[in-house]
Amino acid sequence: MKWTVPNVLTIFRAALVPVFVLAFFSANRIIALPVFIIASITDVLDGYIARRTGVETPFGRWADPLADKLMTVAATTCLSVAGILPWCFPVAYGVIAVMMGVGAIHAYFGKKRIEVVKSNFVGKAAMGGTFFGICLSFFSGQVFPWHIVVIWIGITTSIASLVCYFVLYRKKVRELSKNAV
Fold this sequence. Notes:
mainly alpha; Four Helix Bundle (Hemerythrin (Met), subunit A); 7 helices; 80% helix; 0% strand
C-alpha cells in the first residue's frame, strides 16, 4: 500500500467505525452523528484529492468502498438496534456490501486480473442518499417517515450501482477475452 493522503483518509474513515458504534451506544446517541458526518466528509475528500492530484491507487479503489460499506452497515445496524430503522436496511446494505466485495475479490484475484472499477455517478448518488437518510434517522421523531423514504432511495440506488459495476466488470472481462484471442 502506498501512503497517500487519500489512503490515510480511507484508513481513518474505517477506524471511525468502532468509534461511531461506541459513541452511538454511549449515554448520548447524538455524539455519533458528528463522527458519522466526519467519516462521510473524509469519503468526499479522499476521492477528490486522489483524482485532483492523480494519486489514485489500487488500494484506494477497493479500500474506499469497503470503508464506506463498513460505516453504512454499522450505522444502519445501530439505528435498527435502537428501533429507529427496520432490520431490512442493514441486511440489504450487508448483502450489497458482500456482493460488491466478492466482485472486487474476483476481479482482483480471478484468472483475468481486472482493475477494480472506478466509482461512477450512480455509486456517488447511492452514497449521498444513504448518508442523508442515516443523518435524518438521528432526527426520526421529527422527520418520520422521511428518513425511511430517503434510505429506501439510497438502497435502490445502491442496487442500481451494483448492477452498473457488474455490467462494467463483464464488459472488461469480454474485452480482455477478445484481446487474448
